């Protein structure tokens, strides 16, 4: 079918997948290990709640942010899947949702309408079976491209009965992500017709300057070239995340060095002095009676105790601050007046809270011409035909139109 899905989670998979992603951050994993250590009474002097509450708070805040992002994807998928497309059913045109369109269906498209799936053009309103499409969603090009159907199928025009009886067999390449290549063969009426990319309309294109056209669905849903190029939604680690992980590694090594120094100092103190104060500071039952062995065991246990006591050296609140900043900046992008298009009353929309970081990672932009990044708009200024002047005279100093009658 033609159903698409770009979201990462469902209600069942959200909790395990999101926790798996969050524990890829070293600080979260560190505090999880710390929480496990605090559950061991022999080495812990603090209650596990002191670590559990901040860790759960960070995980919940990040989970809420990730859920918000994924809900936006679900809403976008639902909007696309519920778009209407006229589909031939039993020789009659009916309104069918995009998700209900299947391979082999014949659909009709009107001018300025999105193409629901990868289709083979059968007929159009233009002479010689021509039609024009805009591929801005595929390759960013706003100039129109011309497509032409087979002469034999163009004769069916918009006769629903003839189109409904179309029983051709299409043999073509498997689904791939090559936008400018298609190889196939149409077997129809005991004849073979060669198919190429000029006869295929891809999903995401918009029909332009063509009143109507008909086509048969070749690829649908995740098999379309648009979805083949989109790839699978996955966890993306931004440069800020990698920097934070690097900083956390350095802090953890610093913490381990402090714990190691305290361990050695404690073992020496217990071996030289502490053994004489067992009346006031008794050694646990698990420690052997030997002075050297007992001091060594105490030192090893104290290593984990110091790791628990000094856990605040690792700033778990740093991730909370970064998540709040990301969330706030995504709204600032949406509210930016300089990115508001007045003609269409359209504002910028950050579809993910990490958009600001991802844009900040761009180092080079390659463009084949200036029109790709700007707009090539030509406006009529002035011309002379048969000695008669047409057009307004502009004052270059003020930019106002000069009335020649004055």
UniProtKB/TrEMBL annotation:
Name any one GO molecular function: ATPase-coupled intramembrane lipid transporter activity
- Binding positions for Mg(2+) per the UniProt entry: 368, 370
Q: Where in the cell is it found?
A: Membrane
Instruction: Note the topology in the membrane.
Output: Multi-pass membrane protein
Choose any GO biological process term that the UniProt entry carries and state it.
Golgi organization
State the UniProt keywords alphabetically.
Answer: ATP-binding, Magnesium, Membrane, Metal-binding, Nucleotide-binding, Translocase, Transmembrane, Transmembrane helix
TM annotation in the entry: 49-68, 243-272, 292-320
Tell me where in this chain the P-type ATPase N-terminal domain is found.
1-51
- Assign the protein's first listed, main location to one coarse class: membrane
Which residues are recorded as binding ATP? 368-370
A cellular component annotation (GO) from this entry: trans-Golgi network
So where's the catalytic machinery, residue-wise?
368
The Swiss-Prot or TrEMBL record lists the needed cofactor(s) as: Mg(2+)
Note the Gene3D superfamilies from the entry. Answer: Calcium-transporting ATPase, cytoplasmic transduction domain A
Enzyme group, top EC level?
translocase
- SUPFAM superfamilies attached to this UniProt entry: Calcium ATPase, transduction domain A, Calcium ATPase, transmembrane domain M
Task: Give the reaction(s) catalysed.
Answer: ATP + H2O + phospholipidSide 1 = ADP + phosphate + phospholipidSide 2
- The EC number(s) this enzyme carries: 7.6.2.1
Family of this protein: Belongs to the cation transport ATPase (P-type) (TC 3.A.3) family. Type IV subfamily.
What PANTHER family does the database record attribute to this sequence? PHOSPHOLIPID-TRANSPORTING ATPASE, PROBABLE PHOSPHOLIPID-TRANSPORTING ATPASE
Q: What is this protein called?
A: Phospholipid-transporting ATPase
Please report the organism this UniProt entry assigns to the protein: Phlebotomus papatasi (Sandfly)
